[in-house]
Amino acid sequence: MPKITYVAPDGTESTVDVAVGLSVMDGSVRNNLPGIVAECGGGCSCATCHVHVDAEWQKQFDEASDEELELLEFTDAFCAQSRLSCQLIVNEQCDGMRLTVPEGNDS
Hints:
InterPro entries: 2Fe-2S_ferredoxin-like_sf, 2Fe-2S_ferredoxin-type, Adrenodoxin-like, Beta-grasp_dom_sf. Residues 2-105 form the 2Fe-2S ferredoxin-type domain. One of its GO terms (molecular function) is 2 iron, 2 sulfur cluster binding. Helix content is 17%, strand content 20%. It is α+β, with helices and mostly antiparallel strands. The longest helix is centred in the first third of the chain and has 7 residues, at 24-30. The chain is globular.
């Protein structure tokens, strides 16, 4: 099972096992990690699961859809590494990945 490290807005790091086939958002929510609110439950409609994915890990996932990018553009911490964690499906190659949860997912 891949291990993923989530870096919370306050800098706290949590490394958890996330099953292949689950979303990065599910990994956070199921482990009660701070920062990923996931108001819509993974429906790609709220942007409260916004994360920053380092460029080296971006290739593990499909490109962001127009719908996802539209939501992300309205977040406070939007940048080139921005993704909605509900749209990132974990695979074996995600083992060791680090994600940063920006401030503002609860607004």
